């Protein structure tokens, strides 16, 4: 029996080394693939937003010649690119390119990169014969699937078309992320996997003969956990109560999955921070709306708790309310700050911002549940809202909550076209809008909440 146990222990050690090495590599490969896809989606979101911010009329007036760099319009476009470049620390450069007579040669128009290091001059030629994703950028937003190398370095790049008033793509805007940033992200992930692997190997060598008698069941549990994590289920915990080194290995595995989950949450938070920064840029265009999104989010959360909504809905309300006006990034600044009544054309442009907001955020998987709030927060029960003209019963309750608190904050703060209403006047207008502009149930709950809050603070 002793010889058999020794053989079984030796087999376990060999098997454990092989299994841990293989599964750790597979999980690492899946994690790298997911990290790369998340980064590509992030670059795609950035380049889409960047294309919205560019004044295409100014771009069309720049000629792809070196002397154009001394013109005012070139410097204005360059300044816009520089602002976009600084919105995200991952971005190395943002630049605009146009076609030449040769389909395999593009010309640099404006480049925000460091003039002494990676910047291209106006009119400089660039061979795109092997860069299919860059060519595709004239038809739709796209991102390279792998790193590209040129004289300026190694990058992962995204592209989006710039359309003129006739709907023709006259140029593309490009965003470069340096390979150095990507390599650092991968190295950080690799270190964690290596530490977990070394810990697993050490535990396997020390504890092999102790757990040979009850080897099968714990290994099945551990293998099942590894497979689940390999499939992307980071909520999976391995429960093993053998009071030996295999249980420690399970705890180390659980810590690894917790670290991966924490890294993903941090990455999602970074995405949100980036989007929130863009939302603040919108508010900065109109001093009268500064802090509006934060106040709307605060009201929405308070009302959600007052209505005893589930905690997951309250978290959704908070994020969606913060981002409910993100679509105004596509609205001309002069319209947002205009004192006089808007023209029909200007009003139509304003009414596009819920749909633009949904289009901007739909590429972020973790924001999918909140898209309906952003897209429908200007819908009305009487069907006179926008952009879809939904009626009572078709509008999500969370969108109705944001609609009410959004209107209340707008009424009780100064705007470019009027002074703030009093508390009582704002309440009166909310009640007058019940069943027409607002959901009656939401208005009643909000009015009761506001009056209780005012009474308690008196």
Protein model, in words:
This protein has 458 residues and is α+β, with helices and mostly antiparallel strands. The protein folds into three domains: 2-34 and 183-264, no CATH class; 56-181, Beta-Lactamase (2-Layer Sandwich); 286-457, Hypothetical protein af1432, CATH 1.10.3210. The chain is built from 16 helices and seven strands. Strands 1, 2, 3, 4, 5, 6 and 7 form a seven-stranded antiparallel beta sheet that branches. A hairpin with a 5-residue loop joins β6 (153-163) and β7. It is flat. Residues 1-5 have low confidence and may be disordered.
How do you describe this structure in short?
Helices cover 56% and strands 10% of the residues.
């Amino acid at each position: 029996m002793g010889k058999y146990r020794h053989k079984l222990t030796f087999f376990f050690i060999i098997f454990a080394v092989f299994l841990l090495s293989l599964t750790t590599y597979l999980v690492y490969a899946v994690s790298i693939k997911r990290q790369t896809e998340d980064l590509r989606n992030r670059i795609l979101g950035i380049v889409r937003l960047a294309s919205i911010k560019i004044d295409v009329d100014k771009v069309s007036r720049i000629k792809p010649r070196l002397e154009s760099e001394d013109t005012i319009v070139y410097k204005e476009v360059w300044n816009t690119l520089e602002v976009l470049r600084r919105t995200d620390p991952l971005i190395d450069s943002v630049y605009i390119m146009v076609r030449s007579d040769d389909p395999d040669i593009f010309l640099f128009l404006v480049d925000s990169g460091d003039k002494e290091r990676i910047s291209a001059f106006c009119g400089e030629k660039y061979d795109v014969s092997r860069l299919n994703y860059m060519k595709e950028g004239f038809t739709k937003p796209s991102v390279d699937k792998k790193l590209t190398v040129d004289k300026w370095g190694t990058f992962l790049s995204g592209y989006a078309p710039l359309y003129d008033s006739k709907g023709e793509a006259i140029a593309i805007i490009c965003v470069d992320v340096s390979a150095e940033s990507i390599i650092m992200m991968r190295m950080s992930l690799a270190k964690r996997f290596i530490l977990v692997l070394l810990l697993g190997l050490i535990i396997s060598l020390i504890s092999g003969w102790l757990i040979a008698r009850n080897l099968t069941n714990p290994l099945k549990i551990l293998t099942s956990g590894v497979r689940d994590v390999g499939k992307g289920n980071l909520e999976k915990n391995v429960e093993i109560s053998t009071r030996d080194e295999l249980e420690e290995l399970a705890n180390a595995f659980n810590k690894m999955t917790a670290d991966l989950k924490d890294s993903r949450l941090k990455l999602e938070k970074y995405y949100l921070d980036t989007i929130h920064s863009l939302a603040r840029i919108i508010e900065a265009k109109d001093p009268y709306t500064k802090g509006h999104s934060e106040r709307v989010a605060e009201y929405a959360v308070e009302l959600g708790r007052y209505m005893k909504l589930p905690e997951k809905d309250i978290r959704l309300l908070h994020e969606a309310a913060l981002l409910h006006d993100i679509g105004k990034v596509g609205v001309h600044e002069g319209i947002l700050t205009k004192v006089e009544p808007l023209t029909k054309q200007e009003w139509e442009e304003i009414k596009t911002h819920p749909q633009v907001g949904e289009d901007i955020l739909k590429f972020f998987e973790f924001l999918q549940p909140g898209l309906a709030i952003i897209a429908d927060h200007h819908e009305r029960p009487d069907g006179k809202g926008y952009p879809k003209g939904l009626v009572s019963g078709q509008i999500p309750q969370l969108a109705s909550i944001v609609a009410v608190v959004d209107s209340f904050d707008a009424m009780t703060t100064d705007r470019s076209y009027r002074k703030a209403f009093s508390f009582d006047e704002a309440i009166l207008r909310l009640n007058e809008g019940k069943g027409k502009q607002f959901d009656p149930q939401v208005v009643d709950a909000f009015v009761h909440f506001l009056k209780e809050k005012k009474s308690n603070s008196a």
